[in-house]
Amino acid sequence: MILIADSGSSKTDWLLLKDNQPSGTIETPGINPYFRNTDEIVQKLSPCFPEETKSQVTDIYFYGAGCIKNASDITVIQALKSIFPLAKVEVEDDMLGAARALLGKQAGIACIIGTGSNSCKYDGEKITDKVPTLGFILGDEGGGAYLGRIFLNNYFKRAIPPDLTSIIDEELKLEMPKVLAAVYREEYPNRYLAGFSKFITKNIGHPYFKELVKSGFEAFITNNVERYENYRELPVNFVGSIAFHYKNILLEVADERKINTGKILHKPIDGLMEYHLSK
User: Fold this and answer.
1) Does residue 69 lie within any of the structural domains?
2) Quick check: 31 and 43 in contact, CB under 8 A?
3) What angle separates helix 144-156 from helix 207-224, to the nearest 10 degrees?
4) Is 93 within 8 Å of 65 (Cβ atoms)?
5) 14 has which bridge partners?
6) Which has more pLDDT, 275 or 187?
7) 120 and 127 in contact (C-beta within 8 Å)?
8) R_g over Cα of the chain
9) 220: number of Cβ within 10 Å
């Protein structure tokens, strides 16, 4: 049995392959070694898998946010080996997973726009250049947490159009002390901020929200795509919930910037299955 996992900031998608055929999928919370130690990861994951599966998995390919080679990836490797004692474990960062899912063995630029955002230049085998993401406080342009942060800033600083303010007050009932506590005191503020993307999606027909998303994508293209040499000569591919749900706006921005757009996927897991089966 083979397990393939794609872990973002919010959740992890697991695909089980048996005899090179899909045998089941599981969704668990996101596993970021920046925020969880080995024991905590084991406690979170172990109950999610049947004992029979734990004893039969032979290979695990795990792609995760925060997994740095020969550093934080060791935390995840130790946790997975504890849960799946017979498995050979390979852990890579989520950016390489996105590149393999989007491009396979082709060269191009791969981008993630989900809760956070990231990008890399890929030669068909390995990442050759990577603009640092810097996380949701300093970077993550266009991602869900970025959009949520700008939205809340505009709301409390009275920069929201009046016709939209009443809708926000009625549906979200935002209170500054609670918002500040969620952002500055509670776990996973990036997930909290990204949670407002549901409200944004619901009201994307309003010009304010369309412009919010468009400006986020423009910032992403400027800071995370146009920094690569010869970026206009390569296919630029995207994966992630924000890229997928606001695909039309993303394509509009890409067209205006003369970007050669390739795939736009919701999740990388299917592309990762094709990549590993091809090997």
Assistant:
1) yes
2) no
3) 130
4) yes
5) 5, 26
6) 275
7) yes
8) 19
9) 27
Q: Is the pTM of this model over 0.70?
A: yes
Containing structural domain, residue 8: 2-97+270-278
Mean pLDDT of 208-213: 96
- Number of compact structural domains in the chain: 1
- CATH code of the domain in which 38 resides: 3.30.420.40
Angle between helices 176-184 and 144-156 (to 10 degrees): 150
- Name the token pair of 121: 């230049």
Cα gap 152→147, rounded to integer Å = 9
Q: Is residue 252 part of a domain?
A: no
Q: What is the pLDDT of residues 80-129, one digit of tens each?
A: 999 999 999 999 988 999 999 999 999 999 999 988 899 999 999 999 99
CA angle 110, 114, 115 (to 5 degrees): 135
**DSSP summary character for residue 264:** E
* pLDDT tens-digit readout, 62-84: 998 778 787 888 888 999 999 99
Q: Are 208 and 109 in contact (CB under 8 A)?
A: no
Place of tokens 């970025």: 146
Cα end-to-end span (Å), the chain: 15
In a domain, 180, yes or no: no
Average pLDDT value for the chain: 91
Interval 243-267: pLDDT, tens: 999 999 999 999 999 999 999 999 8
43 occurs within a structural domain = yes
Residue at token pair 């603009």 = 131
CA–CA distance, 18 with 89 (Å, rounded to integer): 17
